[in-house]
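Q: What does the assembled structure look like for these inputs?
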Amino acid sequence: MASVSPGLCSENTLSTAQKAKEDGDTESTSSSFSSSDYNYDLEPEWLDDIQKNGELFYLELSEGEEEAALARVAASQCLSTNHVRFSEKEAEVITEQAGTQRRGSRRKGEPALKKLARILGRKRRPSQRKGGKDGSRGKATPSPPASILKTQPGQQQGVAVQQRRRLKEACVYLNPKRLASSPTPLCERGGLLEALLGVVHRPAWTGGQTDRGAVRQDGRLTVHGLIPNSPAIKCGQILIGDVLLAVDDVDVSPENIERVLSCIPGPTQVKLTLETAAPVDSAAPSDSSPAQKMKASPPVSQLVRLLWGEDTAELQMAIGHIPHIVMYLSLKLDSSSLQEEEEILYQYPVSEASSQLKGVRGIFLTLCDMLENVTGGHIISSSLLLGKHLVHVGYWKEHNNLLVVGLPAERVPLLSLQTVVGDVVRTLKVMYGSLNSAFCKPDHAPRLDHFFCLFFQQLIQPWRLREGAPPPLPDVSGSLFLDGLPAVRWLTLPPEIKMEVDTVLSDFESSDFGEMSEDFFGLRRLYVILGSCLFYKSYLIANHLPKEDLLDVCLYCQHFCLLPLASEQRVGQLVIWREVFPQQRASGGPAPGFSQPQGRHFLLIVGLRHFMQCVLLEAGGCASPALGSPGPDCVYVDQVKATLLQLNTLEAAMEERLNVPSAPCLSCADWFLPAATTRDRLDSLASSSPVLSKLAGAIRGSPSGHRGRSLFGEKSRRSSPQRSLSDSGSEGPMDAGSGLPAAPGLSPHSTPDSGRRIGGRRDSLGSDGSGGSGGLFKMPRMKHPNPFYLGTLKKTLTDRETEEMYNTTKLTSGTENTLFHYVLMETVQGIFIAPTHREVAQLSGSIHPQLICNFHHCCLSIRAAFQQSLPARGCRAADRSQRSGWGLGPVKEHGVLFQCKPENWTDQKKPAPTMTYWVIGRMLLEPVPQEFYVCFHDSVPEVPVEMAFRLSFGLGL
Amino acid sequence: MLQDGSTQLLCLTASSGVPLFTRGASKQLPFSVIGSLNGVHMFGGGQGALLSSCETEGGGKVVWKVFHDSVMLIAVSGGGSSGACIGEEESRLQRLLENVWSCMVLVLGQDELVNLRNIERLKRDLRSCFCLIDKLLEEKHQGVLGDLTHCADSLVPPNPTPLQEAVDGFAQAADSEFGCLFVHGRIVVATEKWWRLAPQEVVLLCALVRTLSASGSASCDYPVFLPQGSPTVAHRLLRFQLLPGADVCVLCGPTPSLQKAETELVGRFWSPLIETLRSCLAVGERCLPGSVPLRPDVLALLLINRETRRSVSCVQISSHHPLSDSSLSKSRCWELLKLFYIFSISRYFTQEETLCGSPEESTQSSHTEDFLHGFSHQPQQCYLVTEECKSYGLQTQQHQFFLLVLPSVPTFALRTVATQTLADIISATAF
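A:
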């Protein structure tokens, strides 16, 4: 902890909490968020989690999410165990009390880390379930009242009737942190039992108030009442009259219950063992719908568990048979050392398949040393055949040490191996400064294990970390391609929202914290805020960081899956603090005369709900130098939180933006295939054809004077081919459907002359084409739905509406929208845009997901071709004379045509229909370096360079 | 250190690591390097980790391969030879190693190579393969892509019928079913049985005939083993020069003698066809008869018939072309065509494998196509726009077609140009 007076802290949290109240939004979940996120306590929740070296990784899911996730885990009877996190001291207390607890394997060298007290070998009853989502989310009304007030007649007689008593187990989610924040003072009488669990127990209950009046038995914790909206009532299984026997298998009595409950340090799920008079199953029959059980899927929390540092063994076991390894080897031989395997400085994982790779490390060392003398370059990769598995091994040499990463070829093709290895090295460098400092400190080992566990899990079985069942077709290349791009996924926002976001961020970055700031007390600043960037649901929406810093930060976020985390589930609170070593700053500034201040840098990431802000701080330089390993500073954390809360008001706007199909409309591949079944055909007809014919009609009816410059005037909305500036007739073929009489031009059989003419002109588009197409995109486009995703709407459409709908910008030419997918990367800013996940999900279909996988796979190849030509570009002049070593030369554009057929084509009489589409990549150097990848239907010849310009200007990048 | 762009071939015995020969690169690698390269592979094999390839910065590449557990071949290519992308150089070297092995079998027979009884004698015997192996290593060799495509380089004559009849008759008279006519080292016509030989054998026989005819002798009698057909029993390859640049050859048994065939048969069958042969020679490097129109902006093309495993390739540089970039030389065009072929094949198109050796070896080498298997849909066509030219490749059920055109051709017209050119060639020659 940096030295900030507690007074400062508390005032600050107060102010933020007030702000939160002002911001209070109308969503039903707001209650949970405001109660879990704020506290009047002096200490923030994450304080206990700060490690000795000042690092912090604190993740707390929002209430609803976490409960749902945990309940799903429990209900699905998943094999993994549940864990309760206890801090060291308290866990010991429990161990004393109940010998049944076993201590989880403690990670050595991390005394300050959360300790895990693992409670293994529980039996769960299959009938167990929770009250359902509405129950946990509902504001005040507990969902099925029947489940709380027992309706069985047997109960009415009270406890004296000794029915067959049964034991039942209930899992509840408890968050002791919320205690501090609850407005009611800690219950005078009920203590933690009431405050935390929501169970009312009156030791001297006299009975009068309820007619079923649970009679008190000495030494038994009978449930006399339930507090509304408490965990106990939400879980729906704790009934009045039940007797609480054990918490997490620790026997409890009125005497020790407070102590046991106080041992729960953080948000977790606990298992309550209760004695009840009625069979549980009959209590709430509506709950046991199979659908709910089907929905249950443990992976929700797999990622979170992994991030919490729990439960890596099971995940790692699942890929134990796939050979993969990371080793850090020393090339220096020290014969005096007696240690075994001393050349291995670090190794992960320890499995059978990886031990085989470890066994041949001599190969890696020899090759690394020798090949440099043979071919004159460092070794990059080698391929090995281990049994049936082909393994690609990537190398990274630093000083006298060698990092070796072995990955299965079916997951990481050779083309992208170098990118993957380069990224992991850069991430390590950002986190630790250099590979040597990362690997050579023995106490880093557990953390590195965790790091590489995440690394391999993401590469080898990414679906285990995501929600839901494994997709039939894992888009491995998709993540390889998108993560490998030196850019971050960007979400374009409407200008007014964008401005607001930027203003809020700038306000924060000005470090003008008013009474909170160090200036106010006449102190030197602790940190200078170098910049920050803001993510919403894994999309970057604002960035005030230089590109290289942004990439560093993004690599870190990517590695720890923070982006998908924020998009899939609402993060209750995420606070990450660590020292980082931004690569650009570490290697010295680009300008020779200017030297970067020799400061230390810290990364602060704060996430609330779907927002996540990453702040890069500098200590030293202008601010006071950092001593030792400072932990997160409350003021800065709270200021970021305040910023995020301020931004929360924009969430609705963001959602709206995400729901609206973005600038270029997309088509679904399935619409272009003659459907296999009639139902499909109807669907596709409904979704595309009527609109299309209407559109075509509208255009046909329009006067033909829409060509030429007027395209970009008022009337441009009606004309289909927003294609070019250079049209004067020669670029007309795409208008075939619209029936424009002119344009004999570039039909497929054009003469070379006309072709050349156009080719020449095309190149000039970059300069003079910009203004016009920029104007084209200023048309309002926000609210219009995708014309090809209309569904039932189309019946009510008037012609006018159809026309308006057509205003939605279309990237492709021709009447039909043939665009399937696109990725545009802006190299200078380090961002890329692509259709949002939601947009892609809307275009459901059987072929389309395949198509996107294929697109990404092809992009890997295209980008590799671009990359390969980059060095050639550099030394072009020198090489041109001597032809050898020139290769294919710099690749500007590369396209591949694919053909797809519907799967399981049953009709034997007719051949399966086919659909062909292009995947094209284009590298632009002027006016700004960009890479553009697009996938569209084959029916219209496109000029990718134009599409790229259209896209980038249309989105105002 | 290896020079940029050169490829060195190392051959050792797999079990004992005795070097048999090294070819390529003017400067031989030091023996310690050769030993280590062999050693790491041997060690890995013992540990169940079979090393297959390695890559270094700047495009350097090492590829290992063991044939029949007896001979180890290692290809080392210095950086930047072709500047090709990662997968491409590897598939080129893999193919080179296969070809070299087949060459050795072709000349020496499989028995001698698999059962290493006398290493010193083998070393001496292997010298007879050197000229053939050097031909394979020689990258500058223009106009022949067969070693890469494993499809026989062909030349389409203007008037094939009399030539076909002559070859059939000539082979029959020589007690053989395998007869073939070469012009400029490319196959013009051949007997039906000749085409039934494994494609790789056909390609190697072409290479052999080229080296033999380059020696300048009018005729020769050369014993050959067929790597697939008869790796242990030798046949006789009789070659006769009909005209400079035009050779005919037959594969036959013990009879007839070279003397007899040369004096009795050659004149009988071929002297009436001298004019036809001259017209074939006139087709020259274009490989396609003049009746096939080619657009002026076509720089080079390669057409492969996937069924008959024949290929036609040509480079047309018209120096007087107003728009042609004079910097694009003929050799560069061949290089680009080759590179584009490897690029497309290693990433998108399938290549029919004809592998020598055991099945486990074939699985080992097929992993270079792993990237190809990652596609969920079938790639049909592809194009590449570079600074020097534009390239277009397409694949149909029967053909693979690769075309290089001038950069001035608009990109969106490439497809039309390619399909049109393909259709023109097929309709004119029925290739």
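Confidence is low (pLDDT under 50) at residues 354-366 of chain B.
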